[in-house]
Amino acid sequence: MSQSFGDEQRNRCKTIVGAVLLACALACAAAPVAGAQPTVPVAGKDFSKPAIVILGYGLTPQGWMRPILYTRVLTGLAVAQAFPQSPIIVTGGNPRNGKSEAGEMRNLLRTLGFPANRIIVEDKANSTVQNAQFSVPLAKKANTSGIILVTSSTHQGRADRNFADAGGNILATVSFPDGNPATNISQLVRDVLSPVTPFR
């Protein structure tokens, strides 16, 4: 095993652990305390049934998932463990060799044991704008309380804006480092604050 491959695997594990910790924090913030009076969610956000939206990433010419897309799916799966009532929406078209981004994400989720009835496939979008335009109505149709976006740090700012413009109720963001350190650090701060901060 090469050193770079080992580093990549360690970074991926750190990302997933971070996603699990964020998901647990979100779940704890959303869960009522036994015997306590109902309270208004922090910043007016309702995490009772979020849709977890995993944004696609270009497949190889042969139709295989690239490492970035694998990491997005694993991160979304980690978040979904904290919300057993929530669906995962996989979004992305751009077919290669007869396979779509969303279709391959669904296949990976199913291989990892995620229930088919909790997966919503949106396989027509060819851009982040279309990811948002096509996924927001699906989240609303599924009677979810809002959206938790899952993507990469260099993509998160654009994705947040596009989903807000499409009328999505963004509850939180979860991203993993994929760019320069300054981008990664600023996005990590945004991710951590997103459950308690309104999006603009």
Can you give a write-up of this model?
Keywords: Signal. It holds the Pfam family DUF218. Residues 51-176 form the DUF218 domain. Residues 1-36 form the signal peptide. This is YdcF family protein. Helix 5 packs across helix 6 (181-193). It contains six helices and five strands, in the order αβαβαβαβαβα. It has helices at residues 3-30, 67-80, 101-111, 128-141, 153-165, 181-193; strands at residues 50-55, 88-91, 119-122, 146-152, 170-176. It has one domain (3-30, 45-196): HUPs (Rossmann fold), CATH 3.40.50.620. The chain starts with a helix and ends in a 7-residue tail after the last helix. It has 200 residues and is an alpha/beta fold. The chain has a five-stranded parallel β-sheet with strand order 3-2-1-4-5, with helices on both faces. It is globular and about 45 Å long.
List the helices and strands and how they pair.
Layout: H1 3-30, E1 50-55, H2 67-80, E2 88-91, H3 101-111, E3 119-122, H4 128-141, E4 146-152, H5 153-165, E5 170-176, H6 181-193
Parallel strand pairs: 1-2, 1-4, 2-3, 4-5
Helix pairs in contact: 1-2, 4-5, 5-6
